[in-house]
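README: folding subset

This subset contains proteins for which both the sequence and a predicted structure token string are available. Records are stored as plain text. Below is the entry for 6,7-dimethyl-8-ribityllumazine synthase (148 residues), shown exactly as it appears on disk.
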Amino acid sequence: MSLDKPHILIVEARYYESIADTLLAGATRALDAAGVEWTKVTVPGAFEIPSAIEYAIRGGRKFDGYLALGCVIRGETTHYDYVCGESARGLMDLSLRYGLAVGFGILTVENEAQAWARADTNKKDKGGEAARACLAMLAIKRQFGLKQ
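--- output ---
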């Protein structure tokens, strides 16, 4: 882990492409403002985000922190509940198992209007908020002398 310039892996779910683009814009703006290097990989949906992070870890790629970006909008079936719960659980499991600094930027909303209100960089900017949360957790790791 570089103490001078952290390197963050952004895992971006592209299921709702326009919302994903907006979340990514907020996140990268926050990371760039902090002087952080970042690499982005894309996955089909939020459910696949934890697996991509696990692949990076198993593949030996060293990142200082991880940022999960995506959106899940409730539909007519229980699929929403499984995707939301399991993607969150997967990220928390990885965080605890490996001591990762993770920013959770997966929107879980009832409709598209709620998604836009949260993603919009001029409103709630949840992409930027998740990036800042990742950096805050990275700072706490360093405070306690933990490394990747």
